[in-house]
Design brief:
mainly alpha, three-stranded parallel β-sheet, Tyrosyl-Transfer RNA Synthetase, 2 domains
Length: 332
């Protein structure tokens, strides 16, 4: 029997190259291995934990993000793609798990204070924000996932999920496997301004960027700050343009550009032009799939609806076991 894995993303809209080369590429690789039963979901309820006052874009963002998933290579015949809020059992399990989760476990969550400080302009003094790791736990153990593909920053959340699953199994009966984190190596891709690539910083190169838009963004990328003139020698190891060359350009081009940069034999303008062409070529299959799904909105809706049905079937089975174990099954 295949091991089941589960992961999700908040619907923030179109994805950028950082998303693509991080979590999303790993999802596709796990799917393509063929030895995992993959479940990937749109975490729209999680979006409410910090953006509860601005919900008008969630629906459109969901569609944009799922199209990027499909463009990246996720196959609805091999992976179940679904929307969290369309499987109401997630809310029920979240409620039941919240009854057994000690408050101290949530308060010591290392990312709780970090995110509150990072988003200090928002009022995050809500039960939903404090308790969202319990909702994450419900998302994962609902499908009895044995593995959760995450970056190292998400390890505390997986550990809390493991503790909650153990507590449920101890208090009632053993229903849930204890999920293991599947660490994802995320390449450090910076935005065009040298900061972390992020939509909120308006420095992202999106998966969907093509033609003049792609060239414009690449041309605006920060390079080695000590290289002010073309005649100045550069340090490719400190330049994000070179980092992207290592991903998109051929090994021969990468081997050529590094010494040319150090000796000032190539200028940043020419280096960026070559990078834009390499990204365009490397992303061509992604762009072609994206154009297909953009032109087929009914197909995208059908994929999401089918995923919701498949996920819902498993969720109902799990919740029947949970209610029986907790002795709150009152069906006559």
């Amino acid at each position: 029997m295949q091991k089941r894995i589960l992961s999700g993303m908040r619907p923030t809209g179109k994805l950028h190259l950082g998303n693509f080369h991080g979590a999303l590429s790993n999802w596709v690789a796990l799917q393509d291995r063929g030895d995992y039963d993959c479940f990937y979901f749109v975490a729209d309820w999680h979006a409410l934990t910090s953006d509860y006052a601005s919900t008008e874009n969630i629906k459109a963002n969901t569609v944009d993000m799922v199209i990027d998933w499909l463009a990246a290579g996720l196959d609805p015949d091999r992976s179940t793609l679904f929307i969290q809020s369309s499987v109401m059992e997630h809310a029920e399990l979240f409620l039941l798990l919240s009854m057994i989760t000690p408050l101290s476990w949530l308060e010591r969550n290392p990312t709780y204070k970090e995110i509150k400080e990072e988003l200090s302009q928002k009022d995050l003094s809500t039960f939903g924000f404090l308790g969202y790791p319990v909702l994450q736990a419900a998302d994962i153990i609902m499908y009895k996932a044995s593995g959760v593909p995450v970056g190292v920053d998400q390890l505390p959340h997986v550990e809390l999920t493991r503790e909650i699953a153990r507590r449920f199994n101890f208090l009632y009966r053993e229903i849930f496997p204890i999920p293991e984190p599947l660490l994802t190596e995320v390449p450090k891709l910076l935005g065009t301004d040298g900061r972390k690539m992020s939509k909120s910083y308006e420095n992202a190169i999106f998966m969907s960027d093509q033609g003049d838009e792609l060239k414009k963004k690449v041309a605006a990328m920060f390079t080695d700050p000590q290289r002010q003139r073309k005649s100045d020698p550069g340090r490719p190891e400190l330049c994000n343009v070179y980092t992207l060359h290592e991903i998109y350009s051929t090994p021969e081009v990468v081997a050529e550009i590094a010494p040319a940069c150090r000796s000032a034999a190539i200028g940043c303008i020419e280096c960026k032009k070559r990078l834009a062409a390499a990204i365009a070529e490397g992303m061509k299959p992604v762009h072609e799939r994206r154009e297909h799904y953009l032109a087929s909105p009914q197909e995208v809706r059908a994929i999401m609806e089918d995923g919701n049905v498949r996920a819902g079937r498993i969720a109902r089975e799990t919740m029947a076991e949970v209610r029986e174990a907790m002795k709150i099954n009152h069906e006559l």
